[in-house]
Write a structure and sequence with these properties.
The protein is an alpha+beta fold. 50% of the residues lie in helices and 13% in strands. The model has no long low-confidence stretch (mean pLDDT 90).
């Protein structure tokens, strides 16, 4: 029978409404000051129609095709094959519109380089602010609002001596304390483990929010995350698996999202 030696629930602060001003300022000023460089890079990446077709149009058409059911038929009588082929042709022929639109966006107007692009960045400031507050900061944290799961979870699972001091109101230790679950390796796996887990937690957390906490989506992300951890873990602990004796799972508790970490031994 497995024995739980460590268990903690880390709260995800999903009530944030605004990002810190300095963070939004940095995004806004960074894009505007790099407008010329952004324009040069996009021309280097997509310099002509052939490249546009290979890098953008064809991959986009391939990704879009599965969205049409095999048995679908439009009102005009077109089947799936005709619709997919028509969409692929339209995308492939869109280079002129794509390129002229961006040339217009980055054009010098009234002596101001990339004036329209910079105006669009200014207009997007509040939207960026809300999106970062609702999707990114709850998982990454920030120095003015404290740490969050992307920082805390990897440190908890590598027994960092400072991690308990990072816990916030709403977090709860249910058993034991931090534990290093990473197997010993001459090359040193801890940095790679921490980086892999942090990246996964950010990506999966954002996707769960975007999918409105869909249970199927939560299970899918938990399966992926526990597989990542299992690849690094020591045999001293029960294998990490969704809902298992050892796990690192996104869980909903009273409509609030938590990351629950549990480590057990046999």
């Amino acid at each position: 029978m497995a024995t739980i030696i460590s268990k903690v629930q880390l709260m995800i602060p999903l009530n944030l409404t605004h990002a810190p001003n300095h963070m939004v300022d940095q995004w806004q000023e960074g894009l505007k000051s790099n407008a010329a460089r952004i324009n040069i890079k996009r021309k280097l990446r997509i310099p002509d129609e052939a490249t546009f077709k290979n890098r953008l149009a064809q991959p986009a058409a391939t990704a879009w095709a599965p969205m049409i059911d095999q048995d679908f038929e439009s009102r005009s009588g077109k089947g799936r094959g005709s619709i997919v082929a028509f969409q692929r042709t339209n995308l492939s022929d869109a280079f002129e519109s794509y390129n002229s639109g961006l040339e217009h966006m980055f054009e010098t107007v009234d002596g101001v380089e990339a004036k329209r692009f910079k105006e669009r960045v200014d207009n997007a400031r509040e939207r960026y602010n809300r999106r970062v507050a609702s999707r990114t900061l709850p998982f990454t944290g920030e120095k003015t609002i404290g740490k969050s799961v992307v920082s805390i979870a990897p440190l908890w699972l590598t027994r960092d001596p400072t991690v308990e001091g990072m816990l916030r109101a709403g977090d709860e230790i249910l058993a034991g304390g931090p534990v290093n679950i990473v197997k010993e390796d001459p090359s040193g796996l801890r940095p790679a483990f921490k980086a892999a887990l942090a990246q996964f937690l950010l990506q999966s957390g954002v996707r769960i929010v975007m999918h409105n906490f869909n249970p199927t989506q939560i299970v899918k992300r938990n399966d992926q995350g526990n597989m990542i951890i299992a690849g690094f873990q020591s045999a001293d602990y029960t294998p990490f698996a969704t809902g298992g004796d050892s796990h690192c799972d996104w869980v909903l508790i009273d409509d609030a999202l938590f990351l629950e970490i549990q480590v057990s031994t046999l």
